[in-house]
């Protein structure tokens, strides 16, 4: 009986965490460059139950022979795995702002060992000088003319240097070359992650690498579109359906938990009568 409480409780916790993940995806359905989180529900290792009994052998000393009688397998509950972003290309949304830049992926290689497709990112530098990565191309110019993201992190060029402009009157070619007053100022930096699932989430659509800075991407694997933003890749319709399914699963576990609770009340009443 008590094992049932733990099994049902683990199911409710897993569905609650899944609902929170889906709610976060829905809340960021309109966030530029947001990558939807995904996860799966897995079961803990099952236990093989056996009944310990003893068989009395009719000898002078009354020897008892212990043995095991198989009962069957018992589930020990479920859990939700760590959430992982889905690094697929979002649709493009036109804004008309020169500082809004969309990064468009080309044919990217697939990791032969894991089967995971690589991903591209804008290069950023935070206040501590560390390199971060994002797909949100909603940039702006700070007071010093540096191209920055909404959190104030500096956008880097292909040489890892900050991009400084005179004003927002500039153009960007498909290859990422920034032109101002008829001269090339810099080339937007793009990094390639061979295994994007290994990146660490930093919040606000930012990622960091555990193994130093990511290498630069090949020029023929991407292009840019000025005046556009990459929209979130969240499928709002499917996310809402998954949220309803998670809620129903939570509700079903709750009903089972209530049934266990009523059974325990009956057992207590019987014990008092006896």
From TrEMBL:
Pfam families: Flg_bb_rod, Flg_bbr_C, LlgE_F_G_D1. Residues 5-35 form the Flagellar basal body rod protein N-terminal domain. Residues 118-178 form the Flagellar hook protein FlgE/F/G-like D1 domain. One of its GO terms (biological process) is bacterial-type flagellum-dependent swarming motility. Residues 225-268 form the Flagellar basal-body/hook protein C-terminal domain. Transmembrane segments: none annotated. PROSITE patterns: FLAGELLA_BB_ROD. GO terms for cellular component: bacterial-type flagellum basal body. It is found in: Bacterial flagellum basal body. Its main location: other. Keywords: Bacterial flagellum, Cell projection, Cilium, Flagellum. It comes from the Bacteria. Belongs to the flagella basal body rod proteins family. This is Flagellar hook-basal body complex protein FlhO.
């Amino acid at each position: 009986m008590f094992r049932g409480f733990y099994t049902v409780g683990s199911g409710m916790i897993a569905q609650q965490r899944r609902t929170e993940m889906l709610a976060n995806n829905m809340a960021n359905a309109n966030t530029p460059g947001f990558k939807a989180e995904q996860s799966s529900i897995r079961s803990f290792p099952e236990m093989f139950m056996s009944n310990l009994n003893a068989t009395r052998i009719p000898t002078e000393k009354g020897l008892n022979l212990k043995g095991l009688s198989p009962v069957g397998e018992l589930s020990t509950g479920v859990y939700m795995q760590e959430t992982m972003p889905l690094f697929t290309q979002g649709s493009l949304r036109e804004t008309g702002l020169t500082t809004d830049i969309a990064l468009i992926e080309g044919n990217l290689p697939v990791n032969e060992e894991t089967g995971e497709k690589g991903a591209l990112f804008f290069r950023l530098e935070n206040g501590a000088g560390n390199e971060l990565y994002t797909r949100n191309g909603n940039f702006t110019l700070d007071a010093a003319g540096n191209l920055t993201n909404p959190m104030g992190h500096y956008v880097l060029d292909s040489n890892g240097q900050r991009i400084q402009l005179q004003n927002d009157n500039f153009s960007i070619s498909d290859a990422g070359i920034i032109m101002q007053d008829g001269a090339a100022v810099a080339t937007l930096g793009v990094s390639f992650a061979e295994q994007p699932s290994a990146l660490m989430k930093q919040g606000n659509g930012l990622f960091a690498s555990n193994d130093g800075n990511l290498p630069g991407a090949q020029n023929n694997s991407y292009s840019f579109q000025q005046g556009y933003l990459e929209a979130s890749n969240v499928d709002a319709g499917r996310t809402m359906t998954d949220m309803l399914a998670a809620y129903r699963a939570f509700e079903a576990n709750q009903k089972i938990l209530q049934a266990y609770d009523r059974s325990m009340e009956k057992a207590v009443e019987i014990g008092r009568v006896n």
